[in-house]
Amino acid sequence: MQIDVMYRPAHSLARVLLPHGESIVAESGAMVGMSPNVQMQTQSQGGLMGGLKRMFGGESFFRNTFTAQGGPGEVLLAHALCGDMVVLDMTQVGYFVQSSSFIASTQNVQIETKVGGFRSFFAGEGVFVLKATATGPGQMLVGAFGGVEQLNCDGNLVIDTGHLVAWDASLTYSVGKSGSGWIASFLSGEGLVCHFTGQGRIWIQSRNPTAYGQTIGKLLPPRSG
Amino acid sequence: MQYQLLQKPDFTFVKVTFDQGGEQMLVEPSAMVAKDSAVEMKTAMQGGILAAAKRKMLGGESVFQNTFTATAPGQRLYLAPGPEGDSEVVQCDGSTPVFLSSGAFLASAPTVQLDTKWGGAKGFFSGAGLFLLKANGYGPLFFCCYGGIHAVDIGAAGYICDTSHIVGFTGGLTYNVEKIGGMKSLFFSGEGLVCRFSGHGRLWISTRNPGGLASFLHPFRPVQRG
């Protein structure tokens, strides 16, 4: 399977070339176009519980599997918001992915939803994280709001939760306050941050969707309820 | 008439340079960015009241369109669409019409005839709103969308495209609006309706759709009290 990301960075579009019989699993709503020999199947991966857990994490209950039949096929995938996409090759340790950044993965990639803990959920900046692992070679497509920058963590690093896209699962992380106390953290406007320790790569997005939503949202007419 | 697409692809806009006086460009209202002051602007309902009303109601285009007329060689006219994203130009050659989805029209030479084509009852009742502007004749036709524009050259195998991502296509293609997958997909896939294209021609797809941005922003709107 080959995944090409075109029209980078602002309005990126991923073209997935599927050899006969191969499949890609994509987040619901990500498909923009496809060749007619590609069959789409809607499934709740991980069963009912898996689906519910995902829904709780701000993702969709169902994911779609696209399979090329009777020859090679292509699927075009895009993110809802403007920004870049990156293709990550699966590694032995796997990745953690901020749930709304996940777009698609090869069929051998196992995706598990991790809830970021009561504290982060309560703070309204729920860090819902997916763990992606694969036994063999595989790929995962993740999307960002804004540009994508790869940071290397050598020891420790602090990243705003709203700017996280994905990171190597070799890193340990904990979500916490940005300052020394809760009040300082709140006043700084930095909200929640993710503390990383260890060695590994972290992909961040150059814009924070929540901050964008708040900037534009308050200018819009009120909605009812 | 010469033209250039500047600042491609994220914030594309169009520069038209007229070769001689009397050359004209038909432009969607509010699309003009700049012009040489001697270029004349005239606002009119193209094709009379009925054609204009049909265009507005069905094609989502404006009732009025502006015609810019050069008065001397070398005069310039700059045009831009409302949303951020790409613009493209296609040369109408008199043989094959070009269909644009609602809101994709930016400008055209006056020798290009514009008409609204009923997208078919199926498209209408399914809420897909596939009303198309049919452009036929000679000369350049400029169109735009929110997001990037990706061209797909469709051959014998055909192609499937999400209805909300269609920008336009050439007349050699026919389409059917349909659902993909089974009953479960209809309700849960999140993919909505698709157009199944067959025939030979070119399809332009937008890499983003403004509805996606609007649904993202909706929860951030203040809530009405009382």
Describe the 3D structure.
The complex is a heterodimer of chains A (225) and B (226). With 225 residues, chain A is mostly beta strands. Chain A has a single domain (2-217), classed as Double-stranded beta-helix (4-Layer Sandwich). Chain A has helices at 47-56, 118-122, 182-188, 209-217, and strands at residues 2-6, 13-18, 23-27, 31-34, 38-43, 63-68, 73-77, 85-89, 95-98, 102-106, 109-115, 128-134, 139-143, 148-160, 164-168, 172-177, 192-205. In chain A, the strands form 3 sheets. In chain A, strands 9, 11, 12, 14, 15, 16 and 17 form a 7-stranded antiparallel beta sheet that branches. A 6-stranded antiparallel beta sheet of chain A has the order 5-6-3-10-13-8, with no helix packed on it. In chain A, strands 1-2-7-4 form a 4-stranded antiparallel beta sheet, with no helix packed on it. Chain B is built from 4 helices and 18 strands. Chain B has one domain (2-220): 4-Layer Sandwich (Double-stranded beta-helix). Chain B starts with a strand and ends in a 9-residue tail after the last helix. In chain B, strand 1 and strand 2 (13-17) form a beta hairpin. Chain B is mostly beta strands and 226 residues long. The radius of gyration of chain B is 19 Å and the shape is globular. In chain B, strands 3, 5, 6, 8, 9, 10, 11, 12, 13, 15 and 18 form an 11-stranded antiparallel beta sheet that branches. Chain B has a 4-stranded antiparallel beta sheet with strand order 1-2-7-4, with no helix packed on it.
